[in-house]
UniProtKB/TrEMBL annotation, chain A:
Compositional bias (Acidic residues): 16-55, 70-80
Keyword Ubl conjugation among record annotations: no
A UniProt-annotated Pfam family: EIF3CL_C
PANTHER family listed in its UniProt record: EUKARYOTIC TRANSLATION INITATION FACTOR 3, SUBUNIT 8 EIF3S8 -RELATED, EUKARYOTIC TRANSLATION INITIATION FACTOR 3 SUBUNIT C-RELATED
Organism from which the protein derives: Dichotomopilus funicola
Principal subcellular localisation of the protein: cytoplasm
Domain PCI, residue spans: 607-781
Name of protein: Eukaryotic translation initiation factor 3 subunit C
Region (Disordered): 1-93, 810-866
Location in or out of the cell: Cytoplasm
Basic and acidic residues compositional bias, start-end: 81-93
InterPro entries the record matches: EIF3C, EIF3C_N_dom, EIF3CL_C, PCI_dom, WH-like_DNA-bd_sf, WH_DNA-bd_sf
Domain of life: Eukaryota
From TrEMBL, chain B:
Major localization listed first in the record, in broad terms: cytoplasm
Keywords: Cytoplasm, Initiation factor, Protein biosynthesis
Name of the protein in its database record: Eukaryotic translation initiation factor 3 subunit E
Domain named PCI: residues: 253-421
GO terms for MF: translation initiation factor activity
Alphabetical list of InterPro entries matching this protein: eIF3e (IPR016650), eIF3e_N (IPR019010), PCI_dom (IPR000717), WH_DNA-bd_sf (IPR036390)
GO BP annotations, alphabetical order: formation of cytoplasmic translation initiation complex
SUPFAM superfamilies, sorted: Winged helix' DNA-binding domain
Gene giving rise to this polypeptide: INT6
SUBUNIT field: Component of the eukaryotic translation initiation factor 3 (eIF-3) complex.
């Protein structure tokens, strides 16, 4: 507010203060009325504020100063008279009344600038005066009227021509009030409605209730004295501390202590460790469940505050303590079903006594959010895991805490399930979703045996009476079922990102457990690759992880083509580390700002979630080898086939490897694959198999022997293909028997491979059934001119195709011209246009095409750039 | 030939019965002919005796529970008697019959006026293509209310339920002309399609399929799930005309190969692939355009390959063995099994011979494509024919397909000649349509 006063032009602020002055002088005349005096007292404060803001004495300032003195004197004398009878609460009441009167008066003169000020003040005051969520009636009346008046003014403003607009200050005040009142009035909507319905009755009921504060007044008067020191926090603290040693904390004072601690939260110079100690003591003396819940909540929050820095994680002992306390909190909540912790419950203001269950209340509601505590605990564990060196025993020790965290999550879920059963509590679906999401995050990347153990241990901790509706105890043995249930729950009950994440988690789990087709189908039907770029970075990383896992799964199934295709986007980019959030790339050219670097570090996954990058590279390169080597051989024999590249990364490595003058024995994975490639290209499939088999990292795969056998088989077949491509020009006929012994393949298998090649027109040959030989046809090599002519005609038809497609996009909707042509041309070309186009898209590399089953890595790049 | 494997392959062939899967996607009334067919299978051809009493009873039971919910009371009552061995149906059936009659009469009364109007020439001549205006006109001139139009719908529904398909079709047609309620019109279209199928009125069934298809594409484009379900149903319903009406073949195959439907089949009802494969394979000689047929064949192969993990039966395995693995012996084995499956399938029974014939052609075709010299003996074994018949068959084939092949009688071989396709011919093929297409394109741009 002050800024806008200073910022506004002088004339306007002057005029407004003039108005105020006018107002106060008129006030002076009716001093008898007590309320009016109160209002002028308010005025004073206001005046003081504005005079401060005005900076520097002015004419008006001086005269106003005089007024101030007068009124403050009279007010003081009044005060003296009143102090004896009035409690703090009543005083506040009076202040409130006064503010309301001011607002009403200001309304008469359309002074929105000061209405805005007063309105703020009113709201501050009313917070202190609320008892049991009910604001004082007069307050309700005031805000209701103010809203009406506001609407009226706004309506008027619309009608009046521009020249009669409000001045700048008023206009701003008006806007401020407009925005705030909407927000504010929502909270009191029911009361306002009651007021609007029958204002008289409403205010009368006010009178009925009026005596209510009176009895409490007596009590409060007594209270006033002890309350005093609490207001002065530091003093209060010192005293508690001093007394803390001598006198043990009593359960009566707990709430007061807590209030003090909560209020000092976030301030400078508060000794958090000290506070935590105090609360630990308090926890010991807390007797009723209510007090315990309150103490534990505050204690856990205070512990989280310790790790609130952006980089540092929470100290270990505090994490453990917080975990214990959360567990205790959940146990208390479980045993005391009449206490619930819900978001949006009202604060309990009375420090002197604890709430008791009213006759028509079912619960004692404590404000707070269990799910937030759990999330925070989880985040803190992740953070500390990020900062610990994964190769130390410390990391493993820390990782064991995950089990206890999982217990908490499960307990929390059970808690939310129980309280959601009661519709009157109105627990939002979102809380349950969040907690299930957390649970899912802890299991989706684990093998089912591990999940099983985790689940069993978690359920052991929970009393046998409790059971979950969503994930019944009886189903704990089956990890797949668990994931399925959790994901489906999220799928039914959530939307947007949580839904997408649930989907990805499920796919990840399926892929991890070799359920390739299901994973692939889900991946395809989710259509996530189209929208993944719009999601947040964490989800994009999850998408990339899932993609990689699906690729690895395809590889384990022996589906080399699919594996290569799926992994291409992640591994072909050379930025696997970044895309999977498993390490930060050293950027050579563009400088990364510290801010970016920090974000990047925050995103990193803890080590135990990593996908082995070396294994990934190994799989990718091996797949690329199996696809690329025959292709290279094919291209080599007929140099003018359109140059098709499957994996650029692999080609680059191969070229680099070939350039080397001297190649030593292979050392790393890459060397192994490269030398195997060389051997394979030369038709020495046995050597290639040896190279591939000697890669140590296969042992990390489950059932490594099967995979080696699968690879050997693939190498044999691809070796045969490569051999045929490479040496076909030098043979007239070739006995299948020879090939069969050469590659140690069944002759039927050889025949099948050759048949396939012939049928796909990769090989110009035919089989002779009588002599069991392959007859190579001669004279199929094209001259340079011929092949160029072919290439030209290809390009020409591609150009037409592109043009047509462009036009199709352009004229969508009014595509009459095009569709007519479509039909005619379909007849002319002898093949339906629709079919032709569909074929063109997939037909480009039809030989080994697996149909429309590839994924595109939509999340690339964007995931990193953030 | 069919009798030999039937003895031992009985149990395995039964595994490929799609009755249950099909039934989920068909209307009650359409399942009935399938059940009838199953019952008919149990009757021994020569003696006319029922082979398996328990099974027959099971089918009757199924028929009963199937039709219980319809209003064909007389027939249901008969079935009930048959099941329980009663002479006279219990009274409840008579009650129900009475009730249905009452309802029918009520609806007929409600609609008598509008039907009468629609039969008058002077009224019909005044109708235009604008439905709202029509309704307005009828309301003004003849006091027709929207309730009367809706009564038509109810009447159609009831008629259908009673098994009076022809009348139901007519009534629904009238309703559709007048109604402006889009949902009900869509239902009426489905209803008419069912009627036309059940009365075997294939020409108009095809029209209805086209209409339903349009509705699915346009109205449901915002609701992918409903679209999927409707398409699944349509794919199943379309099987009736596909295998019963010669002219329906091409349009329905075109429908199936449409991206939306092929995806539906892959995602939701892979077993339709059997019918698709059979339809495409038997369509070999009939297709006006060999290009389209080749394309469809390729698509079938691709989809069979993709769905192999999800759905397999002898027919798809035959396709897989022949076109993906090039394992001719396996293909031959599967063909025998496939024939057996076909003979037990309601839709495919009539096409079994056709399929076997076409499949042989396919085998031979791809065999010839790959081989340069084939021994006749081997081939005849492969085709399941004796040497003389095989020779005749091959001669016919060479003549029909203008295959470049010769029989060397002395050696007992067929020699294939594979001329490499001329590169000049290729260039001509590729550039043939270019000029025309460009012209059309420029015309379209100029517009």
């Amino acid at each position: 507010m002050s800024r806008f006063f200073r910022g506004g032009d002088d004339s306007s602020s002057e005029s407004s203060s003039d108005e105020e002055e006018l107002y106060t002088s008129s006030e002076e005349e009716e001093e008898e009325d007590q309320e009016q005096q109160e209002s002028s007292e308010e005025e004073d404060e206001d005046e003081e504020e504005s005079s401060d803001e005005d900076e520097g004495p002015k004419k008006t300032g001086l005269s106003r100063f005089l007024v101030d003195q007068d009124s403050s004197e009279s007010e003081q004398s009044d005060e003296e008279g009143a102090t004896k009878v009035k409690s703090a609460k009543d005083k506040r009441f009076d202040e409130l009344e006064a503010t309301i009167t001011t607002i009403q008066n200001r309304q008469k003169i359309d002074d929105w600038g000061s209405i805005a000020n007063e309105f703020d003040k009113l709201n501050r005051q009313v917070v202190k005066l609320q008892d049991g969520g009910k604001a004082p009636k007069s307050y309700i009346k005031c805000i209701a009227e103010l809203e009406d008046f506001l609407n009226e003014t706004l309506a008027k403003q619309k009608v009046t021509p521009k020249n009669k607009k409000l001045n700048a200050t008023n206009a701003r005040g008006l806007n401020a009030v407009k925005q705030r009142i909407k927000k504010n009035n929502k909270d009191y909507q029911t009361q306002i409605d009651a007021f609007r319905k029958d204002s008289d009755a409403f205010m009368e009921s006010d009178e009925d209730e009026a005596p209510a504060p009176q009895p409490s007044r007596v009590r409060f008067q007594e209270v006033v004295a002890p309350e005093e020191p609490v207001e002065d926090e530091d003093g209060g603290f010192a005293r508690v501390d001093r007394r803390g040693k001598a006198v043990p904390y009593s359960s009566e004072g707990i709430l007061k202590h807590l209030r003090a601690i909560v209020e000092s939260r976030g301030r400078k110079n508060t000794d958090r460790a000290e506070q935590i100690k105090i609360m630990e003591e308090l926890n010991k003396v807390a007797e009723t469940p209510y007090l315990k819940i309150r103490v534990l909540q505050t204690l856990v929050s205070a512990r989280f505050d310790l790790g609130s820095g952006t980089t540092s994680s929470m100290p270990l002992e505090h994490w453990k303590a917080a975990e214990k306390e959360l567990a205790a909190l959940l146990t208390i909540l479980e045993t005391n079903k009449d206490h619930v912790v819900v978001e949006g419950a009202e604060e309990w203001d009375d420090d002197e006594k604890t709430p008791v269950l009213g006759p028509d209340d079912k619960y004692i509601k404590v404000p707070g959010s269990i799910v937030s505590y759990i999330e925070r605990l989880d985040d803190e564990l992740t953070r500390s895991l990020q900062s610990i060196d994964p190769h130390t025993s410390e990391y493993i020790e820390r990782l064991t805490d995950e089990a206890s965290l999982y217990n908490i999550i499960l307990q929390g879920l059970l808690y939310y399930e129980t309280i959601r059963k009661d519709a009157s509590l109105e627990i939002p679906q979102e809380s349950v979703n969040r907690i299930i999401q957390r649970r899912l995050d802890h299991v989706y990347f684990k093998p089912s045996q591990v999940v099983k153990i985790l689940e069993e241990n978690a359920w052991k901790q929970i009393s046998s009476a409790a059971d979950s509706v969503i994930t019944p105890r009886s189903q704990t043995g089956d990890a797949g079922q668990l994931i399925y249930v959790l994901c489906n729950y999220l799928f039914d009950n959530s939307e947007g990102i949580i839904r997408a994440r649930a989907m990805l988690c499920q796919i990840y789990f399926l892929a991890l457990h070799d359920d390739y087709y299901k994973a692939r189908d889900m991946m395809l039907t989710s259509h996530l690759q189209e929208s993944i770029a719009n999601f947040d970075v964490a989800t994009q990383i999850l998408y990339n992880r899932t993609l990689v896992q699906v690729g690895l799964c395809a590889f384990r199934k022996g589906l080399v083509y699919d594996a290569q295709n799926t992994l291409q986007d992640i591994c072909g980019s050379g930025r696997q580390k970044e895309l999977l959030a498993q390490g930060v790339m050293i950027q050579r050219f563009n400088q990364v700002s510290p801010e970016q670097e920090r974000l990047e570090k925050q995103r990193q996954l803890p080590f135990h979630m990593h996908i082995n990058l070396e294994l990934l590279e190994c799989v990718y390169l091996t797949c690329s080898m199996l696809l690329e080597i025959p292709l290279l051989a094919q291209i080599g024999s007929s140099p003018d086939i359109k140059k098709r590249v499957i994996s650029k990364t692999y080609r680059r490595m191969l070229e680099y490897h070939e350039r080397q003058i001297f190649t030593g024995p292979p050392e790393n994975t890459r060397d192994h694959v490269m030398q195997a490639s060389k051997a394979l290209a030369a038709g020495e499939w046995k050597k290639a198999t040896n190279f591939i088999h000697s890669i140590k990292i296969w042992d990390l795969m489950p059932s490594a022997d099967e995979i080696k056998a699968m690879l050997a088989k693939q190498i044999q077949e691809e070796g045969l293909r490569t051999y045929l491509f490479t040496y076909a020009p030098f043979y007239d006929t070739l006995a299948i028997e020879t090939l069969s012994t050469m590659f140690e393949l069944d002759s039927v298998k050889v025949a099948a491979v050759v048949s396939k090649m012939i049928s796909h027109e990769e090989l110009a040959a035919a089989l002779d059934q009588v002599t069991n030989t392959v007859i190579f046809r001669k004279g199929v090599e094209l001259s340079r001119l011929q092949s160029l002519a072919l290439a030209l005609s290809d390009k020409a038809s591609a150009l037409i195709e592109t043009n047509e497609r462009t036009l199709e996009v352009r004229t969508q909707g009014s595509a009459n011209a095009f569709s007519r042509k479509d039909g005619r041309q379909g007849g002319q070309r002898g093949g339906g246009q629709r079919g032709g186009r569909g074929g063109a898209r997939t037909g480009g590399n039809a030989q080994r095409q697996a149909g429309g089953t590839q994924f595109t890595g939509g999340a690339l790049g964007a995931a990193v750039r953030g | 030939m069919a009798s030999a494997p039937a003895a031992n392959g009985d149990s395995s062939v039964a595994d490929y019965d799609l009755m249950l899967k099909l039934a989920q996607n068909l209307d009650r009334h359409m399942i009935f002919p399938l059940l009838e067919f199953n019952a008919g299978q149990l009757v021994d051809e020569e003696s006319g005796e029922i082979k398996d009493e328990a099974k027959a009873r099971e089918i009757t039971q199924a028929k009963y529970s199937l039709l219980k919910k319809t209003d064909m009371t007389d027939y249901v009552a008969n079935l009930y008697c048959e099941l329980e061995g009663l002479e006279e149906p219990p009274a409840e059936f008579a009650d129900k019959k009475q009730k249905v009659f009452g309802q029918l009469q009520k609806y007929e009364q409600d609609t008598s006026k509008i039907i009468e109007l629609l039969e008058r020439d002077d009224v019909v001549n005044n109708l235009r293509s604008d439905k709202v205006a029509n309704l307005e006109f009828l309301k003004r001139e003849h006091e027709v209310t929207i309730d009367m139009v809706n009564a038509l719908y109810d009447l159609g529904n009831l008629q259908y339920s009673c098994g009076n398909y022809a009348d139901a079709s007519e009534t629904l047609y009238r309703f559709r002309v007048l109604s402006t309620d889009n949902d009900k019109v869509a239902y009426a279209t489905w209803g008419r399609l069912a009627c036309e199928i059940l009365t075997m009125n294939w020409e108009s069934a095809m029209e209805e399929i086209q209409k339903v298809r349009e509705t699915i594409d346009s109205k449901l484009s915002q609701n992918p799930l409903a679209q999927l379900q409707h398409r699944t149903a349509l794919a199943h319903w379309a099987l009736f005309p596909l295998f019963n009406f010669e002219k329906a073949r091409e349009p329905i195959l075109e429908l199936f190969f449409n991206a939306g439907y092929i995806n539906t089949i892959q995602a939701n009802c892979a077993w339709v692939l059997r019918y698709l494969a059979v339809a495409v394979i038997t369509n070999r000689g009939r297709a006006k355009n060999p290009g389209i047929h080749q394309k469809q064949m390729k698509d079938v192969v691709r989809i069979v390959k993709q769905e192999a993990y999800e759905y397999q039966d002898p027919i798809t395995r035959f396709v897989h063995a022949l076109s993906i693995d090039f394992d001719f012996e396996e293909a031959q084995r599967q063909l025998v099994l496939a024939e057996e499956v076909l003979r037990r399938d309601f839709f495919l029974l009539a096409h079994a011979d056709d399929f076997v014939d076409s499949a042989r052609h396919l085998i031979f075709e791809s065999y010839c494509k790959i081989h340069a010299r084939i021994s006749l003996q081997d081939l005849s074994a492969r085709l399941g024919l004796n040497a003389d018949a095989a020779e005749k068959w091959i001669v016919n084939l060479i003549r029909d397909t203008r295959l470049d092949a010769k029989i060397d009688y002395k050696e007992g071989t067929v020699v294939m000649n594979h001329p490499p396709s001329s590169v000049y011919q290729q260039v001509i093929e590729k550039t043939k349509g270019g000029f025309f297409r460009t012209q059309v394109l420029s015309a379209a741009v100029a517009k």
